[in-house]
Predict the structure.
Amino acid sequence: MIVNPEETSRAYAYKMWLNAPNPMVTIFKKLDVSHILRLSRKKDLKFNMLMCWCIGKAASKIPEFFTLPVGKSLIRYDELAVSTVIDNKEGGINSCDVPFTENIRDFNDDYLQLTQQTARSCMNHDLEQSMVIGTSALVRTEIDGAVGMYSGIYNNPFLIWGKYRKRFLRTTLSLSFQFHHTQMDGAHAAEFLQQLQDEISRMIFH
């Protein structure tokens, strides 16, 4: 739904950043992922799926995630989705949007079904009615973060991470979080990243 920026908390940010040459901000963060790594092994779950669910869960608690600048408009969404990059059967890649749901079992079922479908079809799975949080996992390499390209078309928030690092009793994961300044401020982004760490640390899969 298109909303009037003046009737939202993003009115000032809309005026300041919508037409900026590069309105994207990137924050780097190191997360302790020891808990979900153990959980993935114990329950035979994909680590990337657990990360995507935690991202959706953390974002669902930040109201700014539901409003996104699209072109010259400010759009408010009712639902969130988390996108992941899939290696397809022809050796290329596609993106797959997975709808976020609070029920992690349902999210896991959707994740497995949709990613397999995307890999077979070699076609992107897009959820245009959802505010999509992009992710890219570069799991073969340890990285400290990455700054994404700003195209002026894709304004969605985006997280990039690499291979996790195992050090003694802790496993850490460095990631970068890129967001459009019209959508949120640094304080909102920092709150999201703290919420993400909290969700990772307390996740339960029954």
User: Anything to note?
Assistant: The longest strand covers residues 170-180. The chain has a mean pLDDT of 95. Residues 104-121 form the longest helix (18 residues). The beta strands are 2-3, 24-32, 67-70, 73-76, 80-87, 93-99, 131-138, 158-162, 165-167, 170-180.
